[in-house]
UniProtKB/TrEMBL annotation:
Heme b binds at residue 191. Residues 24-325 form the Plant heme peroxidase family profile domain. This is Peroxidase. Disulfide bonds join 34-113, 67-72, 119-321, 198-230. The active site is at 65 (proton acceptor). Binds 2 calcium ions per subunit.
Length: 345
């Protein structure tokens, strides 16, 4: 494709993504107010990734968990206070990690442009940069999000999809956020990177049903490997983790779907993508056409990044991503209660 035509195509794709995302967010939102913002975030994420490759799936997952609870407003970043238990305390979020990366990026951006760039946007940029580093998936992020003022532990369980959901429940969970079935299958490909605790899939390895000890849909050799790592008496606090993608666990690519075709989906919710013909067709398409999935993943991430965003004068631009402006830092619970841990899903 000639360079001129390629440039036009990329421009049109960017415009279409922005239109799908909504008029309130804008590509290049900080070009004038803080032109170095996105590059600064990219450098911080790249530095962290060089030291620990689990940072990439961790930040992608954190963005997902942020957007599914109260929209993409940075509420997942808020620490608990003496008077409130924040989203970080909920069981699905206790394994999130990468908060220090966001803190570092925010500090650097604040030093350059005080009070301009929201924590919600920094997280969205960081997730994009993670996709680029882990999978060479590149896309532009419409920005202009404002930071939320509220973070409530109890709202997480009812909004974050459980790894135990079946196909109908998964479709419904994403539909509640105005994401399509195709979006759900596409975004599930983020499981190409990251790991999960044994407790997230132990239900498939022992006492699965009255007739089967092991989930019969699991590849027997794969099931044997999993049982060797995860004993039947494993608890939710056991630190043992297993890669969500057994084929290319460190690369964000379409091999997650190939693994599903081989009956190597780790979680119940992974296997669920094969239980309905319409979902399986999408799995097969993504498995066969990696570059198509790359494009769809970028498009779905941008769409997800527009869920219930705060813009204009709503919310605020936090000075510290862990506390609302005017909050008392002394009331925060100690960070050691919620240390960065392995990236799970």
């Amino acid at each position: 494709m000639p360079n001129g035509v390629k440039a036009v195509v990329m421009y049109l794709v960017a415009i279409l993504l922005q239109m799908a995302h909504g008029v309130d967010l804008e590509i290049g939102f900080y070009d004038k107010s803080c032109p170095s913002a996105e590059e600064t975030v990219r450098q911080v994420v790249a530095g962290a990734y060089a030291n620990n490759r689990r940072i990439a799936p961790g930040l992608i997952r954190m963005h997902f968990h942020d957007c599914f609870v109260r929209g993409c407003d940075g509420s997942v970043l808020l620490d608990s206070t003496l008077g409130n238990s924040s989203e970080k305390e909920a069981e699905p979020n206790r394994s999130l990690h990468g908060f220090q990366v966001i803190d570092d990026a925010k500090a650097m951006v604040e030093a350059q442009c005080p009070g301009v760039v929201s924590c919600a946007d920094i997280l969205a940029f960081a997730a994009r940069d993670s996709a680029s580093l882990a999978g060479k998936i590149h896309y532009r992020v419409p920005a202009g999000r404002r930071d939320g003022l509220v973070s409530i532990e109890s709202e997480v369980i009812t909004n974050i999809p459980s790894p135990l959901l079946n196909a109908t429940e998964l479709v419904g969970s994403f539909a509640a956020k105005n994401l399509t079935t195709a979006d759900m299958v596409t975004l599930s490909g983020a499981h190409s990177v990251g790991v999960a605790h044994c407790s997230s899939f132990i239900n498939r390895l022992y006492n699965f049903s009255d007739t089967d000890d092991i989930d019969p849909t699991l590849d027997p050799i794969y099931a044997s490997i999993l049982r060797s790592k995860c004993p039947s008496n494993v608890t939710s606090t056991d630190p043992t983790v297993v890669s969500l993608d057994s084929l290319t666990p460190a690369v964000l690519d379409n091999m997650y779907y190939v693994g599903l075709q081989l009956n190597r989906g780790l979680l119940t919710s992974d296997q669920a993508l094969l239980t309905e013909t319409s979902l399986k067709d999408l799995v097969d398409l993504n498995a066969y056409y990696g570059k198509v999935w790359d494009w769809k993943f970028a498009k779905a991430m941008v769409k997800m990044g527009g869920i219930e965003v705060l813009t204009g004068s709503d919310g605020e631009i936090r000075k510290n991503c862990r506390v609302v402006n005017g909050g008392d830092d002394s009331e925060l619970f100690p960070d050691k209660l919620f240390p960065d841990s392995a990236c799970l899903s």
